[in-house]
Amino acid sequence: MKCSVASTEMERTAILQQRYDIFVEEFNYLAPREDGKHIEYDEYDKYSLLFGVWEEESLIASCRLVLPNPILGLPTLKVMVIDAGKLESTQPTAEISRILVASKHRIFKKTIKILQIMQKEINKIASEYNIVQLIGSVEASFLRLLNCAKLPYQAIGPLQHHIGPDRYPIVLKLQDNITSIKEES
Description:
The protein is an alpha+beta fold. It has a single domain, classed as Gcn5-related N-acetyltransferase (GNAT) (Aminopeptidase, 3-Layer(aba) Sandwich), CATH 3.40.630.30. It has helices spanning 9-26, 75-79, 108-128, 140-148, 174-184; strands spanning 2-5, 48-55, 58-66, 93-101, 133-138, 154-155, 168-173. The chain has a 7-stranded mixed beta sheet, sandwiched between helices. α3 links the parallel β4 (93-101) and β5.
């Protein structure tokens, strides 16, 4: 397995199609596109890096990293209630979202490995952009899964409605993740 930022139009399209397949067709979190295209894309994608996890030639997982931008901001900060004091709002922040694993690869140990590989690449790229923390919103069960993968994401607000089932806004301070990786070595 290898995780990398999509560098070709073919890789970007594969990730956007995977998002459509899972968010629209499998989970019904989003409505089908009116134009009939089988891609899931929104206004944040133009400010994002798309990551794919590839096993041989197959895309098995993906996510996006929404970079800080003055035009739209970050989705979680716009739509979720954040507990005061739980987020360092003055620190460079990006958002990880649209985290997906293809259904036939959703086996506990494999999903853990996929999330760890994905996070390692995200950490590397985030440091190149001087990002010090990542935010997002996830279901309670997915937050437990991230923590099982030893990714120290923490809830920074109450459970609330966003896309699909209720979610927690979360944060990962990259320094905490780097420290936990070193402690495991």
